[in-house]
Amino acid sequence: MTRGQWGCAVAPVAGLATGVLGAVLLAAAWRACDVGVNGAANGLALIFYGALLAIMAAVWWGVFIGYVGRWNLAAALLGGTAGAAVMVWIFVALLQVPNGYRC
């Protein structure tokens, strides 16, 4: 397997991991601030937001590892991790409390 093909193997796994991490962190923030009726009421929104984040992260990982990984695999992994962390941070910061900061 060439380094360029690693993007196709790593991107779905890393994207899914990023989406799950973002959904878990968002669920914890919502639970701490009493957003929604209960955990089950927020489940559909968390699945939707987590899937959206997973798709964006999978594209990011695929392009970054597939392109940058051809020359330097360590830099590609570091850049992919940094980009995924920024995505999760923005994701949780924007969606943490839908009606404003009250907690």
Automatic annotation (TrEMBL):
**Which UniProt keywords are listed?**
Membrane, Transmembrane, Transmembrane helix
* Bilayer-spanning residue ranges: 47-68, 75-97
Keyword Membrane attributed:
yes
Any idea what this protein is called? Uncharacterized membrane protein YuzA (DUF378 family)
Native source organism of the sequence: Streptomyces avidinii
For this protein's source organism, the top of the classification is: Bacteria, Bacillati, Actinomycetota, Actinomycetes, Kitasatosporales
